[in-house]
Amino acid sequence: MTLKTIRTILFAPAFLILIGWPTASGSALTLQEAVREGLQVHPAVAAARRDWEAAKAQWQATLSPYLPSLDWTASAEEQNTGGERDHVERSSLSMSYTIFDGGRRRTERDVAMAQLDQARLTLRRTRLDVVRDISAAFVQTLAAQQILKERILQVEDAATDLKVAQGRYRLGVALKSDVLQASVRLEEARFEKVRAEGDWNKAAAELWSLLGRPLKGRSELAGSLEPLPPLADRDHFLALSEKRPVVLNAEQEVKAAQSRKQGTTAPFLPTVSAQASYAATHGSGIYESVDDEHQVGLTATWNLFRLDKFYDRRAASYQLHASRARLADRIRQVRLECHNRYEDVVTAQRSVAAAQEALRQSLHNYRQALGEYRVGKGSILALVQAESALAAARIRRVQSLENYWIARIELERAAGSERIVALPLKVSPQRGEVR
């Protein structure tokens, strides 16, 4: 039985896992499609949208004080006076309208508008969080899938070492311990492959959960972790960060505080309202000849002294200063976060380059050790260590790519950008990768 046949028997199930995802679902799922699907079904987005609709209805309700109020009242009574029973029915229609209230209505409407804007920003912030979560889960699933492929290559390399050791042992030019060491290394590689399969299944389950799909569902993912895209200037992201929902929300808090401060002027001014009413009375006995009543009036109310309105005005002034201070602190925090996230991307980008170079060196070292062992110039220990270092370099390369994309996603979130990170659709060939 040839080495190629042995590899086919050993690794066919694992490759079926990787390439045998059901294709009945149609084309592969891209990151953009996953984000659109997740935004439609995610419960947090639906809840934030309902909160925004509720705030919009409450803002519309603040129109009520600007319109007249109309009331209708009706009653029916039976009265017994000195043995005589009288029946009376009353009905009245009244209308009132506030002509001037010192700005209370305007204050309520401005505050409701600020709350509506805050609800809108909360919806936007929730959408950004969901986009970040789905993008990160998508990248982690791709990375877990690639790590599983690398683990399969690791098992293949370990099987090759074992095959060479067995051949040299049969020729009498290697010790039994060489075969045992190579065999142990092969079992370790198989163990790591099993763990990689479990990690891949968990990463995929998290992605399907965010998309509202069954946790054990399968769908091919379209995308690759490389090549790395260009990175915009740091100032570009810092400028975007000052328009994040959390900053705009703090600005709305300042506007609401200003409206509340203006509203504290209302108790110092009179309230003028107009009333009109019509009342009709029908009945028997003394109520038989009661005339209808018509009433039109104008009422002015002016509070001359009330202690709390002075302190309310002072408290509103303090709250306005506090909201401005919180706005400045929010801007400081988001700029610092964006700056640090940018540093994470730069560091991750350099780590990818270092991992690529380490992989190239490890690959050369493994080939050298394998060649030397074939001709009897090297030891099995050096070969096993070289293969183990190559496997670690492969995994480190994938992890560095994963870390880079996670850092990019976190940078976009820190900048408050609604742009979805575009993953490459084609894999660039790797230098000297063993297949």
Automatic annotation (TrEMBL):
The UniProt entry, under Gene3D superfamilies, shows:
Outer membrane efflux proteins (OEP)
Alphabetic keyword roster: Cell outer membrane, Membrane, Transmembrane, Transmembrane beta strand, Transport
Q: Name one GO molecular function term.
A: porin activity
- GO CC terms on record? cell outer membrane; efflux pump complex
Report the main location listed first in the record.
membrane
- Tell me the Pfam families matching this sequence: OEP (PF02321)
Mark the transmembrane ranges: none
Please state which protein family the record places this protein in.
Answer: Belongs to the outer membrane factor (OMF) (TC 1.B.17) family.
**What's the protein here called?**
Outer membrane protein TolC
Source organism: Desulfacinum hydrothermale DSM 13146
Which lineage do the record's taxonomy fields give for this organism?
Bacteria, Pseudomonadati, Thermodesulfobacteriota, Syntrophobacteria, Syntrophobacterales
